[in-house]
Amino acid sequence: MTAFVSHACLLALTIVPVLAQNRPRPALDYAFFKDRVQPILLDKRPGHARCVTCHQHGSPPLEPLAAGAAIWNEEQSRKNFAIWKMFAVPGQPEKSPLLLHPLAREAGGDRFHAGGKHWKSRSDPEWQTLAGWVRGQTMGANRAAAVRVLQTNAAGDNVHVIDPATNRVVGIIEDIEVPHGITIAPDGTRIYITDEALRTLDVVDAKTLKVFQRIPLSGRPNNVDVSRDGSKVYVGIRQAPGAVDVIDAKSFKNVKSVPVKGEIHNVYVTPDGKYAVAGSIAASAISVIDTSTDALAWTLTLDAGIRPMAFTRNKDGSTKEIIVQLSNFHGFVVVDFAARKEVRRITLPDVPGHEKETQGLQGSPSHGLAITPDGKMLWATSKYYDSVAAYSLPDYQLLKVIPVGLHPEWLTIPPDGRQLYVAIAGDDATAVVDIRKMELVKKIPVGAVPKRNASGTLLTASSN
Ligand code: HEC
Fold it and tell me: N or C: which end of the chain has fewer CB within 10 A?
């Protein structure tokens, strides 16, 4: 006993002075590792094999990715963190094997790494990100609210979360078989996703990306939107006779099924929040619901099934036009909202020399619309020609046609209006188009047959 005590004292005596002269050792942040470091371990650098390709077999090990998975799940990320933090010396990037092994020898890196030299200098942004983690950087407050692009996978069971600042996948919402529509709560705390397999509205926590509520619907759902004040969620019911279910966002109760004209494919809340506009393929009808009463205000029947819609605004913010895509029509129709009638019909251009795609069009050669936040440009997809077409607003002049990939579907533009995200159903990818340069900049691999997408600000995880 005595011997033990004196031994402990001796230890304390010898260790304390050493610690005192050392720099403080910052804690290594798990959230930063998960969201910032792991994407580097997954990324493909030209001319190099990816870190994950070798290291999922060991020395030091990364968790093996599940078949078809783009990123690790939570449990795997925790395991990766536990192992890889041992290759970081907290506070000292210049002593951390994680940073030195793949760094060029001339830049102060180790003599040899069997996986090659991935960074020529310490000023490489990836090296700097790793250095930040080693110095104890956390996701911080600015990271608490982040813009995200959400990509559903219509033939899959998950939704990919993309950071538009880096155009990388930073998360996956799991466990929703055949997710259909998706929308973000205005306060950024939740994501609403319609679940075709379970016929529920699934509510996902923006922080954990986990489903925490499944609300039963009156039938198989299609698309979804949320009221501008966040209090109600509108879900299009695709099963006969068709309805728009109204979900109370506080109680999570399905409070009303509004009878409408025909089975509902898409439903949108207008930019001013005053109406929920639902479209039926079977009845070729648009049903306009007054959101103050949740009763049908008016309907309009066109000559073909109603597909995606978008809305232009008057100067006072009220709805000016509904832009409507129709079944078997390679273009869109413009409906004057006040006059309640079709005023214009625009056919997308043929692309000479490009063979027309005819397989699996699902009755909809053009199925995706988006308007830039400044209201000056409209984008529409062409499945015939694997492209997106840009039009100026309000005059509907064709600006450009850009090839993006097989079966382009839905479109979304984040609030800064800089990039257009196109679900490329036939390529299992989300294409990114630079709106100012009008060119395709990247294709991000996502899940099986991506279709609906959405973007907006999420209150994402900080550390824990
Ligand atoms: C071609 C396969 C391959 C690739 C790609 C690869 N590594 Fe390695 N890595 C190895 C092997 C094999 C070892 C063990 C032999 C050695 O140390 O060179 C290793 C060792 C390491 C070590 C251990 C260092 C130590 O002190 O033991 C770290 C850390 C590491 N790699 C990080 C990375 C990172 C980060 C990347 C991507 C930027 C990467 N590796 C890419 C094969 C690879």
Answer: N
Contact 393, 377 (CB under 8 A): yes
Summarised one tens digit per residue, pLDDT across range 333-348 is 999 999 999 999 999 9
C-alpha to C-alpha distances, 258 to 11, 289, 302, nearest whole angstrom: 74, 8, 21
Per-residue confidence (pLDDT) for residue 362, from 0 to 100: 87
- C-alpha 396/C-alpha 374 separation (Å) is 15
How many Å apart are CA 265 and CA 306, to the nearest integer? 8
Task: Give the residue among 399, 228, 371, 381 at the shortest CA–CA distance from 311.
Answer: 371
**Residues of the chain predicted below pLDDT 70:** 1-24, 140-143, 461-464
In whole angstroms, give the CA distance from residue 423 to residue 176.
18
Cα first-last separation, the chain: 40
Mutate which of 41, 52, 53, 55 for ligand 1? The one with the most ligand atoms within 8 Å of its CB, which is 55
How far, in Å, is the centroid of ligand 1 from the Cα of 98? 8
Alpha-carbon distances of 225 from 1, 16, 109, rounded to whole Å: 70, 60, 52
**Residue 59 alpha carbon to ligand 1 centre in Å:** 7
Note the pLDDT of residue 463: 36
Residue whose entry in the numeric block shows the structure tokens 């003599």: 111
Closest CA to 215 of 201, 205, 225, 204: 201
C-alpha count within 13 angstroms, C-beta hemisphere, residue 48: 20
Q: From the CB of 49, is ligand 1 less than 6 Å away?
A: yes
Is any ligand 1 atom within 6 A of the Cβ of residue 59?
yes
Please give the structure tokens belonging to residue 13.
């005596």
CB 50 within 8 A of CB 42: yes
Assess contact for 254 and 245: CB atoms under 8 A: yes
Interatomic CA distance for residues 148 and 455, integer angstroms = 6
Q: Is 243:221 a contact under the CB 8 Å cutoff? A: no
